[in-house]
């Protein structure tokens, strides 16, 4: 498995696409929340691991890209008269994944990088589905561009892990996380949300 072709163990269901198309404004609100969180996650790695100087430039760049995505989603929301939610709700998908992390500092560092990788890959898969399903040309293009960006982010976090851990350990653990993410995804309620 190469880090630029991360597979998912469970594909997103057609019912999810239908839920998004039926309540696109709610999807946009959730998407905006997700981009804000993604930017914060990248910067939290910088805050928690300032000694990992090899990856800090990429983390900052990723955080800025995610913030730019938030800006773009917000612009779409403003055009449609959709407001941000008053508070970002609990993310049961992320909570279920993080609960399965190792507790040791190094092991948790690897796990958090790989979880982020799989989550970004799932986001990419879902943005492609939205792009394929939506009729509006502007939204179609926007989600197609985001799909490419999220796929790139998925591979970046694996590449970061390879700076600090043996390749076999990284890819074995990545496969484990791909399987756990699939299990979590199967339990998630189908709704107009990125996860």
Brief sketch in words of this structure:
This protein has 195 residues and is mainly alpha-helical. It has a single domain (14-187), classed as Ferritin, core subunit, four-helix bundle (Ferritin), CATH 1.20.1260.10.
Give a structural overview:
- With 195 residues, the protein is an all-alpha fold.
- It has a single domain, classed as Ferritin (Up-down Bundle).
- It contains seven helices and no strands.
- Helix 2 (24-48) packs antiparallel against helix 3 (56-80) and helix 5 runs antiparallel to helix 6 (137-161).
- The longest helix has 29 residues, at 105-133.
- The protein starts with 13 loop residues before the first helix and ends in an 8-residue tail after the last helix.
- The relative contact order is 0.19.
- Looking at CATH, the homologous superfamily is Ferritin, core subunit, four-helix bundle
Q: Unreliable runs, pLDDT <50, ≥5 residues?
A: none
Helix vs. strand class: mainly alpha
Task: Give the biggest beta sheet.
Answer: none
> Percent range for helical residues?
over 70%
The average pLDDT is 93
Distance between the termini: 24 Å
Number of helices: 7
**Per the principal axes of the C-alpha atoms, what is the gross shape?**
globular
Question: CATH architecture, please?
Answer: Up-down Bundle
Strand content: under 5%
């Amino acid at each position: 498995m190469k880090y630029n072709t991360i597979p998912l163990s469970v594909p997103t269901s057609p019912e999810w696409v239908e839920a998004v198309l039926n309540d696109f404004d709610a999807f946009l609100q959730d998407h905006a929340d997700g981009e804000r969180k993604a930017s914060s996650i990248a910067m939290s790695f910088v805050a928690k691991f300032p000694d990992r100087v090899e990856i800090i430039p990429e983390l900052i760049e990723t955080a800025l890209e995610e913030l730019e995505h938030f800006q773009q989603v917000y612009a779409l929301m403003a055009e449609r008269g959709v407001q941000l939610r008053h508070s970002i709700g609990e993310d049961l998908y992320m909570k279920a994944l993080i609960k399965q992390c190792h507790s040791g500092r190094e092991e948790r560092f690897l796990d958090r990088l790989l979880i982020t990788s799989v989550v970004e890959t799932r986001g990419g898969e879902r943005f492609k589905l939205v792009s394929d399903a939506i009729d509006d040309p502007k939204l179609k293009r926007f989600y197609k561009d985001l799909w490419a960006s999220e796929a790139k982010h998925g591979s970046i976090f694996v590449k970061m892990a390879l700076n600090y851990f043996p390749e076999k350990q990284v890819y074995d653990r990545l496969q484990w996380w791909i399987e756990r993410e699939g299990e979590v995804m199967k339990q998630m309620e189908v709704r107009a949300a990125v996860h």
